[in-house]
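Task 17 of the worksheet. Students: predict the tertiary structure of the chain below and write it out as structure tokens. Keep your answer in the requested format; marks are given for formatting as well as content.
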Amino acid sequence: MKLRVLYDNEAEGDLESDWGFSCLIVSDEGRKLLFDTGASETILARNMKKLGIRRDEIEIIVLSHEHWDHIGGLNAVLHPDAVVYLPASFTETTKNEIERNKAEIREVLGPGDIVAGIHTTGELGLSIKEQSLVLDTRIGDMILTGCAHPGLEAIMDAARIFGDIGGVMGGFHGFDNLELLKGLKKIVPCHCTVHKTEIMETYPEVAVKCAAGKEMDI
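Model answer:
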């Protein structure tokens, strides 16, 4: 499984940083999925161009939740052959925008498989509904979050139906129960993670800095 961060608060090289998150996933079978789209279609498109990624390469777009910093760049990647997985609670406004671009919508409620080796936790949370991904990797299941509004603890609990958790990556928001991360083989705090510095200092051997352009083969 290969991951490439396309959009984050920090950036490598000549890529642009901005408040938001997007990550390209290439499955072991070569399927290309985009998790979230950042806040700006202009910035996402420019970062993709610099990395040599075309919108028509992306088969599946997975949206974690409906906040602007995760769906604002959607028009940069929508195309008629794309399939968009989104929580069923998304507004009709967003769904209609996707349909106007002739992309297929698949609404998510409960946990399930998206493609081989890539699963969704299903909608989690109360006031803010959010889905996370669970990736089958060499280090165990890797959780990929948008902002973790339902709480990283709840997301990890939901992900365990797919197997043992080997790592977590994405925005963790205000998560501060750092003991919960003990024993993981990879920790990648991104975007909105409030306690990013503490996580990096507590787990220096397994914590990895997140930034647009960061590439991982797991």
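Marker's comment: DSSP finds five helices and 13 strands in the chain. Residues 41-51 form the longest helix (11 residues).
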